[in-house]
Amino acid sequence: SVHLSVNDIARPASPSNSVKGRTRSRGDSLGIAPLAPLLTGDCVEKMFDSRYKTQKERRALKPTWQSNIYNFLERPTGWWCFGYHFSVFLMVLLCLILSVLSTIENHHHRAAEILYVMELVLVIFFGVEYGVRLWS
């Protein structure tokens, strides 16, 4: 069993605990301290720039199909997006109107037939749209 005391964790600087004028810490024995200069300053900035900056610039220059579809569905701007989302709204509204009409005796049979077809179309449509949203 290992017993640690306060003196083992926080040792004062002594000649045996010092390396070339700096205090030796517990991280030195684990090999962490020599990495400290690499994890600060220009080294980290260069690693970050080489990995992320070029991908960001490349994506900014040429958007992919995936990002275009994501923006179309999630961030609608422009007339095409408005037309698409408005037509989806109208289909759902039509289903609501048909479901109300199916409760009226005079329109029950005809509205129920159309409503059944519309609901099948909407289930398939929303299923495909959900898959496209997950992909994008």
What key attributes describe this structure?
Ion transport domain-containing protein, two-stranded antiparallel sheet, 136 residues, voltage-gated potassium channel activity, rod-shaped, Volt_channel_dom_sf, mainly alpha, transmembrane helix
Brief summary of the model shown:
The mean pLDDT is 76.
Identify the strand order in the major beta sheet.
1-2
Mean pLDDT: 76
- Any low-confidence stretches, pLDDT <50, length ≥5? none
- Category from helices, strands and their pairing: mainly alpha
| Shape field | rod-shaped
Element string (H = helix, E = strand): HEEHHHHH
Helix proportion range = 55-70%
How many strand elements?
A: 2
How large is the radius of gyration?
Answer: 33 Å
Number of helices: 6
Q: How much strand content do the residues show?
A: under 5%
Largest sheet: 2 strands, antiparallel
Topology:
Blueprint: H1 6-9, E1 18-19, E2 22-23, H2 26-30, H3 42-61, H4 65-74, H5 79-101, H6 108-135
Antiparallel strand pairs: 1-2
Helix pairs in contact: 5-6
Question: Overview of this structure, please?
Answer:
InterPro entries: K_chnl_volt-dep_KCNQ, Volt_channel_dom_sf. This is Ion transport domain-containing protein. It is found in: Membrane. The chain crosses the membrane at residues 82-102, 114-132. The chain is mostly helical and 136 residues long. Helix content is 66%, strand content 3%. It has helices at 6-9, 26-30, 42-61, 65-74, 79-101, 108-135; strands spanning 18-19, 22-23. The chain has a two-stranded antiparallel sheet with strand order 1-2. α5 (79-101) packs antiparallel against α6. It is rod-shaped and about 80 Å long.
